[in-house]
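Every protein is a chain of amino acids, and every chain bends into a shape of its own. The fold becomes a row of whole numbers, each drawn from a learned catalogue of backbone shapes. The protein below has been through that process, and both of its lines are reproduced in full.
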Amino acid sequence: MATGSASTDDFYVRYYVGHMGKFGHEFLEFEFSPAGLLRYANNSNYKNDSMIRKEVHVSTSLMKELKRIIQESEVMKEDDKEWPLPDRVGRQELEIVMGNEHISFTTSKIGSLIDVNDSKDPEGLKVFYYLIQDLKCLVFSLISLHFKVCGWYRTSQQQLKPPYRSSQFK
């Protein structure tokens, strides 16, 4: 666990999970910047997939909700010194800057709650595990919704264009 100081208005969240495998470096990463920019990257070389990168601007109310979720999880009180170290299976990183607190967690990939319960600090790792589940769900929903709505909007704008010329109705 690493802590430091930052200005009181700062709020930043970054999550990374990945591994090196037979398909190369495969990972999922997202971050929320203080300006409300959500950046998402997913790299999988399975079946020659290419990297997916998305950026979405989110509202201040969503940033406040994200901050509330993190505060209520109480993850900022946890310490990763008893958590499993990253290994060949992979690693997870969570970095949060909230006001004057700056915390960074690093652990191995967690397959299920069995891995959490078998750790030296099951209560602390459970807080981390459930927060990560919530954050991933939020990010996937935002990315999916944003690009479906934008795609629908573009498609609907094309469909709303009249298929006729105005001169036909004189």
Q: What stands out?
A: The longest helix spans residues 122-160. Confidence is low (pLDDT under 50) at residues 4-8, 152-170. The chain has three helices and seven strands.
